[in-house]
Each structure stands twice: as structure tokens, then as C-alpha cells.
Amino acid sequence: xxxxxxxxxxxxxxxxxxxFLGSVADMSVTPGQSPSAVRQALNAEQGxxxxxxxxxxxxxxxxxxxxxxxxxxxxxxxxxYVTAGAAPIGMLGELLASAANPNCGAWxxxxxxxxxxxxxxxxxxxxxxxxxxxxxxxVSGGNxxxxxxxxxxxxxxxxxxxxxxxxxxxxxxxxxSAETHTWIQKAADIAGLGTESVRWIAADDxxxxxxxxLRSRIRQDIASGDKPFLVIGNAGTVxxxxxxxxxxxxxxxxxxxxxxxxxxAYGAMAAGAPEASQLFEGLELAxxxxxxxxKWLYAPIEAGCTLVRDVASLRDAFSYHPxxxxxxxxxxxxxxxxxxxxxxxxxxxxxxxxQHAGREGYAQMISDDIRLSRAMYDAVSxxxxxxxxxxGLSIATFRYVPTEVDRSDxxxxxxxxxxxxxxxxxxxxxxxxxxSNAVIGGKYALRACIVNFRTTLEDVESVPDLVVxxxxxxxxxxxxxxxx
Length: 484
Ligand SMILES: *Cc1c(COP(=O)(O)O)cnc(C)c1O
Known about the structure:
By secondary structure, the chain is an alpha/beta fold. The protein has helices at residues 3-23, 35-42, 55-68, 88-100, 111-128, 142-157, 162-165, 183-190, 211-223, 246-256, 312-318, 347-382, 413-430, 457-461, 463-483, and strands at 135-139, 172-177, 198-201, 227-234, 259-263, 288-291, 304-308, 386-392, 395-400, 436-440, 443-449. The protein has three domains: 3-30 and 33-70; 102-345, Aspartate Aminotransferase, domain 2 (3-Layer(aba) Sandwich), CATH 3.40.640; 357-483, Aspartate Aminotransferase, domain 1. It contains 15 helices and eleven strands. α4 runs antiparallel to α12. Bound molecules: pyridoxal-5'-phosphate. Pyridoxal-5'-phosphate is lined by residues 82, 141-143, 146, 181, 183, 236, 238, 263, 265-266, 292, 304.
């Protein structure tokens, strides 16, 4: 491709993306198409082209396919899972990163990119009030960020020669609340401990780990010859946004000599927002901490980040020095700090966005999301056919309850669960708004998690009518089906 051809094709593409950004609020959240319809639009059966084609034409078709057949998490009414739209400056950052294409495994191969990664890590630490002399690195997302922290804990507390001999027979045990994200299972599996090494501790009424139950389980395990090595604190659980008592967990870890890992993939960024910062006391004591810039920092996917109090703990967990690597400079070589070898320039998009909005801008956007979530919870509470269930950080959960069904009668839950499940399927396919689900004490709940800088109060207040409209339809149909 000539420079001139690149310029023309690139300008066309940027125009098309700008058009998308200007109109996404008026689009459907999702086309709600079946897999076969999407495959057909793609012409998925077509084989590999024999000869090449014009770049601009290819990009036109790609843009059309993507914009016509995607779910848009950039939509102001997208509130599913913990998934954010991308900051536009991050999109441009991705383009620039791929243009220079540094290999951020080694400093010599990525001088400026490696330094930008280091600065971004320090800025994130500053935002979270985590020590800024911490170590850390970018990874693909929250799962990987947590797994890296878990492996650092395993190397630090797993006993001598664990990296060379493996975990065989060591009976290592990890502790977390029952509300913990499923990454812990992958981590225990990948780390060779097995999923049965995970001790799921009961949560209290506020969905926070029961610290006394945790303490007695640790004592019991020690007494029976197991080796506790790590405790996970949740800084924003994925279902309800609960934040564990991080300070108490840090103290307990000190008492028993355990590694303290905090999963802040969803919530930790709220530590920088006055609306919620007091919840995160003790976060600064974590030995390792997972955060997820592709959530509340609005980096285009993928961008996760692990922070550690002491950078040596990452080297101790990951570094090897084969003969074919020689990088004779005194600087951070990121391949030493994590599982990856060649690494992309993920930090750039985050570095740009942090400066574009500034600390204040982020504090404002995150506080807005928390307030909007509370407003949604209030709006839902006011509607006689909706039952508000939980509200924490920027997550609200609730369910549709027809007027003639007694919401306090647990026997009715089976029907209500089925009703709300079907309601959610229809709402997700309808494209007017997007929610996901949670199960709250056996109740199937609709769940809205606002990590969305485009959401307005009007968007949030539209939720009760939308949900009730679909709920009534589904209820009527289900009733008819049982009558027949
Ligand atoms: C999102 C999330 C994860 C997983 O992060 P990915 O970026 O999806 O890999 C882990 N823990 C919590 C609390 C999360 O919200």
C-alpha cells in the first residue's frame, strides 16, 4: 500500500467512524439477529480469496458489516455485564500504537512505549491511592490481571521451589467470598492447584465476605494440614457491586502471613471518585491488585492491568533468562513481569484517555454513573409492578412482578424466575436497551451496570416502562400457555 493510498483509505474510514459516533445514540443497541443471519450477511462459507483486492473497498465493506451487525456497548442504554463503550481518543490511540508497532516485551524494542506503560501504571496507582512506587503491567483484561496476581501470590507464598517442582502435594488453599467472579476457577486450574483448592466463604446480607467465617475456615484448614496462601478481596463484585472489608482482610492476611489479592476489575476505579472512595479503605494494602481499564476507564477492549506493591514479586513469579535474550540496558523488560513474551502497546490508549479527561474528569464520570444507578433503583422502586432488589456502586438489580403475584411468597419465585428470564431474553433482542442478569438469593434478577459516559437521567428513567411493557406481554403469554 502506498502512503497516498493509505491516506485516502484512512480518511474515508475515520469519516465513517465519526459518523457512527455521531449517530450511535439513535441506533438500535443490537440488531438482535440469529447466528445464521449474521453468517449469511458475512457470506461465511466463502473460502480464502485467491488474489488481492483494493484496500478502500475492503474497508468500506468491513465497516458496513461491522456497523450493521454489531451490538453497540457505546449505546447510552447499554448496561449489560461490566462492559463499556470505548473512549474515542482510545480508538485513535489503537491506530497510532499499531503504526509504531512496538514490541513491549523488551525495552530495547519499545523504548517510548515501555516508558509510557510505566507512567500509565503509576497514574492508575495514583488514581486508586495505591503506592505509586508499585510495579505492574498491562494484560488483556480482568481475568488475566487477576490470574497474574494469583500466580504472584503462589510464587511468594507457595513454598520453596514451587516454580521448579510444581504444587504437587502442597495442599495450597485460596480463599474468597461466594460472590467472587469465575476467574478464580480458571486461576486455580491454570496454576495447578485445582478448583477444589478454592474455599468459597459465605457472604453477609450486603454480599461482603464474612470475615469471621473466613478466619475460622483458615484455622480449620491449618489444623487439618492444609496450607492457606492467598485471600481475595472483592473491590466491586460483579453481581451487586459489593466491596469487601478490605482493611479487615489485609489485617487477617498479615496475621496469617497470606498473600492479599484484590479483584478491582469492576470497581476499583471508583476509589478515585468522592461518591464512593470511603468504601475502598485498605485497598492500598493489597499485595496485588487487578484493575480493568477497558471497563471504567473506557479503553477499547483489550486492556487489563495488574499492580503489585513490590515489582520483585512479579519477577519472582515469571522471570526466566534464556541464552538467546540479551538486552543490555538498565530498564524494565516487561516479558520479565508476566506470562506474555511479545506484547502490544496497550498502555497508549489508556495513557491518552487519562490525560484527555484528567483525574477530575474520571472522578466526575464515575460519580455520575453511581448517581444514575441510584436514580434507576429509585425509579424502579416507585413502580408497583417492579421489585427493586440491590444497589451497589453503579449496579442496580430488580425484577418484574405482576400485580396479582405475591412478591414475598417464595413459592412464587419459580414462576417469577421463569418470567424474568424470558423478559430479559426479549429485552436483549429488542435493541431498545440492554440489561444482563444476576441471581439474588435464589431470585432471578435483571441487572443494570452503568459504566457508560453517554447514559443520561432520561435513559435511566425510561427503564421501568420498558421493562413493565415487556413483562406484561410475557406474563400474559405464559399464563395463556399454562391455561391451555
Ligand atoms: C469483568 C470482571 C472480571 C473479568 O474481567 P475481563 O476483563 O472480562 O477479563 C473479573 N472480576 C470482576 C469483578 C469483573 O467485574
